[in-house]
Amino acid sequence: ATMPPLLSAIANAGRHGVLVKSAVVMERLGDTDRVALDKTGTLTEGAPRLVAVHPHDGWDADEVLRLAAGAEHLSEHPLAGAVVAGARDRGIAVPTAADFRAEPGRGVAATVDGRRVEATRPERSRDSGHTAVVVAVDGTEVGVLEIADRLRPDAAAAVGALRHLTGSEPVLLTGDNERAAARVAAEVGIGDVRAGLLPPDKVAAVRDGRTMALGDGVNDAPALAAAHCGVAMGRAGADLTLRAADVVVVRDELAAVPKVVDLSRRARRLVK
Ligand code: ADP
Ligand code: MG
């Protein structure tokens, strides 16, 4: 006997390195009419690097970075990894911290050397088009860290294929600033950009229509769960995100996503 089309499609998806969690999901992938993608870790590699430290007047760059790294070393966010690695690369000993608090989509705060240190997203966009982290000590801004992440090599091709398959413009959803979002959108050719979003805003944005949401981080889990179909980039994905997703891209290639949508379309034509 021949295999049921949906089962055969699931097996095929597996060969492309994509885990489709159920037959219902396999079928649903093909009637997606809109795609929403997270920026950091989804369109970009999710391995950000610290590229510059801009201290405010009266502050030393290494001291700004040292305090920020102290607060960030307790965070699991990829940006936190960039700050801590950036400090270590400059030979800075990362101090311990207490009373750590993380606010999803916004940043972190902790007490370092008796001072309250915050590392958070900026109020306004920065000119560089990079991600900016504002560092404050005891409520006063002391500097800005500039962080860059490389685009995934297959991001533009995957976005193009998803636009073609769904017949609608993909949308970029990010908590990052507008300039940084616009820069990535231009590089991958996305015309619809929503920047400065908090996790609940991402949830609201994927409730429209039959949206497939692609994300990677812990912050993306609610949006993946709320979407018609939630797809997690697996390698960087937190357990929470993998659990919330309907589909996991195990092999970490964005280009596999349109391939699996196409497999779903083919299977649907055969399903009785
Ligand atoms: P994205 O939507 O790009 O995946 P997030 O929702 O995780 O990003 O975060 C949105 C913004 O919040 C980041 O661009 C950054 O400015 C800020 N942010 C989040 N977590 C941290 C952190 N640990 N340290 C500094 N800034 C952070
Ligand atoms: Mg992300």
What does the model show?
Helix 1 (5-15) packs antiparallel against helix 11, helix 4 (61-72) packs across helix 5 and helix 6 runs parallel beside helix 11 (256-270). This protein has a 7-stranded mixed beta sheet, sandwiched between helices. A 6-stranded antiparallel beta sheet has the order 3-8-7-6-5-4. It is α/β, with parallel strands linked by helices. The protein has 2 domains: 5-45 and 151-270, Rossmann fold (3-Layer(aba) Sandwich), CATH 3.40.50; 49-148, Calcium-transporting ATPase, cytoplasmic domain N, CATH 3.40.1110.10. It is built from 11 helices and 13 strands. It is elongated. The two termini are 16 Å apart. Helix content is 38%, strand content 25%. The model has no long low-confidence stretch (mean pLDDT 94). Bound molecules: adenosine-5'-diphosphate and magnesium ion (MG). Adenosine-5'-diphosphate (ADP) is lined by residues 38-40, 72, 75, 77, 79-80, 105-108, 119-121, 131, 133, 174-176, 217, 219. The site of magnesium ion has 8 residues, from helix 3.
